[in-house]
Amino acid sequence: LIKILAVIFTVALILFLLAYLITNKIYSFAFGRRQDSTPLKFFTSDDYEGLNCTPIEFKSTNDNTLRGNIYYYDYPTYKGVLIFAHGLGVGHLQYTHEINHFAKLGFKVVTYDNTGSAKSDGAATGGLPQGIMDLKSCLDFVRSRDDLKNYNKVLCGHSWGGYSTINVLPFVLKEDNVKCAVAMGAPFCSTDALYEMITKESNLLKFTGPFISMIEKNRYGQISKMNTLASLSNVDIDTMLVHGTKDHIISYENNFKFVEDNLKKDNVTFVTAENKRHRPNISDDATAYDELIRNDVDNLKTRKAKREEFKNYYDNIDYHKLVEFDDNIMNQIDEYILKHFN
Which of 281, 288, 192 is nearest to 243 (CA)? Predict the structure, then answer.
């Protein structure tokens, strides 16, 4: 009996270690590298007449230097400061169209590249909880600036940035003067986000769930356990959540709808973007165009197209069409933000 139990224990231990190593490999593939190159074109402040851009840098909690910009128009006065947190990918320039929009509304827009992204330091992005820490460091930076600290503020983010925006709220100080927050396409929690993505690829990877939690707990401690429901339950800062019903990356049902059904607080507003995918604030035409581009690129990869063919394809994308706003969604976001700054 002892020998049998020893064999069972040994086999179980081997399977446990194998499952952990596989999950760690997947986690490293997702977050163990930098995000600083893409064939896509991003707009900069030079593409918007009158949009000013002042470089900034500050240290994150992991002692990496994060770099970004303050965007603004030459207005005699400003409504406040909007802090924008970007999604997983090549930094804040993915959102220059949104940044310009909010700057035109009369805000100074403070934004930055997360750890391991674009112009910021860091060997890798690390994991979604790192975004909370980076945004917290940005709040510390803004609080230290005489030209920013006295303004009322709004936090805004998409995807990874939406997750960071929601889960940084418990760390906001009274002197930060945060009046509201807007999160678009935000995952419920970091563990579920990765689990959802990898199990879409194969049902055989369903064993990874508890191991993802274990890896994140080792890396980030208690901050890894933060989620939308808990964070919004414990703060009174007005928050708007926006999510597309056909989000192909962060599912509508498992994230947005789950929170909407289980959180009943008057200070939280839910906006459902019908038929939108992961970018809920862009138009139906832009959504369809984005999907077309993804399919075209997948086809180019499948037939192993040459580098010149890829370059030619990306050079001929209509980037203005790709970022075209859905006026209805953007108007709801604008009205929500502006009512807190009257």
Answer: 281
Beta bridge pairs of residue 52: 72
Q: What is the pLDDT along the chain (342 residues), one digit of tens a residue?
A: 788 888 888 999 999 999 999 999 999 999 999 999 899 999 999 999 999 999 999 999 889 999 999 999 999 999 999 999 999 989 999 999 999 999 999 999 999 999 999 999 999 999 999 999 999 999 999 999 999 999 999 999 999 999 999 999 999 999 999 999 999 999 999 999 999 989 988 888 999 999 999 999 999 999 999 999 999 999 999 999 999 999 999 999 999 999 999 998 999 999 999 999 999 999 999 999 999 999 999 999 999 999 999 999 999 999 999 999 999 999 999 999 999 998
| Cα 305 to Cα 127, 274, 290, 308, 325, distances in angstroms | 32, 35, 20, 8, 32
How many Å apart are CA 165 and CA 27, to the nearest integer? 22
Give the list of residues 6+ apart from residue 272 with CB closer than 8 angstroms, or none.
243, 245, 252, 256
Q: Does the predicted model carry a pTM greater than 0.85? A: yes
State the DSSP string of 202-217.
Answer: -GGGGGGHHHHHHHHH
How far is 45 from 36, CA to CA, in rounded Å? 19
Cα gap 58→211, rounded to integer Å: 33
Residue for token pair 């069409």: 321
DSSP codes, 137-177: HHHHHHHH-TTTTTS-EEEEEETHHHHHHHHHGGG--GGG-
